[in-house]
Every structure is written in C-alpha cells, then in structure tokens.
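Worked example 3 (structure in, sequence out).
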C-alpha cells in the first residue's frame, strides 16, 4: 500500500477540540494500515517545517492530506499557498518570527492536486465542498506551503491536499442534512474525501497511461 501521511492540529483560540485531528485520526483508523501515519501538529509558528521536514525526508509519503479548522458552514479545499504570515498570536501567545514562511521562497504556489475534480466527485454523492484560494495566512497556510515546498525539495511524486473543516461544535450541511461537526461527521467526511481523491487519482493514472499507449 502507498504511504499516506495525515495531519491535524491541536486546539487553538481557547477551544477544547480541533476538528482537524478528529478527521485525521478517524481516517487513519478507517484505512487501518501500518503505512498510514497521522501527526498532530501544534498551533505554533514554524513548527510545520520543523516537524514535517524529517518525516517527509525519511519516510517519503506518496499521499499527504492536511486537515485544519477554517470558517463555519462549509468544507473548503485550498488551491493556493501563499508565502505569508498574518499578525496573529499562536498557542504560545507569540507573533510570527518573520512575515514570510520561507524567505526567498516563491510568493505563491498552486497546489499539486486537481481540487475541482475532487469537488465534482464528492458532489455526485451529495457532499458539497467549496474550492478556496485563501488559506488564511495562519498555521494552515504555513502547513500547506511547507508541504508543497517539501514535495519539490525532496523530488516526491506525492499528491498534497489541504482541506479546511468547519470548527468543532458548529453545524454544516452534509448530504442534505444539517449536521453538528463532531467526531462522527468528521470521520464520515474524511472517508468520503479520501475515496473521492483516490477516484480522481485513478482516473488521472488511466488517462496518462492511455496517452502513453496511444503515443507509441
């Protein structure tokens, strides 16, 4: 089985639970394979690169899905990572040590997965997801930027996806019903997302193989 890395965050802003970690652990349990790893990241400036660089370098995952809490009432797939940090306190009540995530790095990175195709696949089963180009300039954006840079830096063929979940305890429409964002819902969504992503990647593989065969 391919190596899969899942990430979520610790609670922040005084909350007791972070929906992202519920989603990551639920998906890891669902897949149930030793080639799946779930990492809980602290909401601290600079930690995504510090923690993930050795993991990505040594383990070389084939698929990386990052989860984070975003705005209420919608699931959002992020399509852009910007090299910027907001003036916002982390869980140590510290401001970012620098305005840029990576000094000298590209100002903007388009993500390595076809988010629109995943959204269309999810919509077929009644799961509404938005495509977003604003990851928020907080730790979620830093995580996505770091992952995309690590993918290039270590020549990984990995696909990177980042999704913003509604905060834990809020409500969201899911498959035609208004649901509370708890562990059960986060697990259902994470599995649906994973299945849809696999379908999109499989279709892409088949299409690329067909092009290669017809080109001979």
């Amino acid at each position: 089985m391919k190596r899969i890395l899942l990430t979520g965050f610790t609670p922040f802003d005084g909350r007791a639970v972070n929906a992202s970690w519920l989603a990551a652990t639920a998906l890891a349990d669902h897949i149930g394979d030793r080639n799946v790893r779930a990492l809980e990241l602290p909401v601290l400036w600079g930690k995504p690169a510090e923690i993930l660089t050795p993991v990505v370098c040594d383990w070389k995952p084939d698929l990386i899905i990052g989860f984070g809490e975003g705005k209420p009432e919608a699931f959002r797939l992020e399509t852009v990572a910007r090299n910027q940090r907001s003036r916002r306190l982390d869980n140590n009540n510290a401001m970012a040590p620098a305005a840029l995530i990576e000094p000298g790095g590209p100002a903007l990175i388009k993500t390595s997965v076809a988010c629109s195709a995943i959204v269309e696949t999810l919509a077929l089963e009644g799961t509404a997801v938005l495509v977003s180009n604003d990851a928020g300039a907080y730790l979620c954006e830093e995580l996505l930027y770091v992952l995309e840079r690590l993918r290039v830096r270590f020549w990984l063929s990995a696909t990177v996806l980042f999704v913003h979940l509604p905060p834990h305890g809020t409500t969201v429409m899911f498959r035609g019903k208004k649901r509370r964002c708890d562990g059960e819902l986060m697990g259902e969504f994470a599995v649906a997302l994973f299945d849809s992503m696999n379908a999109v990647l499989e279709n892409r593989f088949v299409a690329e193989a067909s092009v290669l065969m017809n080109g001979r």
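Notes: The longest strand covers residues 63-69. The chain has five helices and ten strands.
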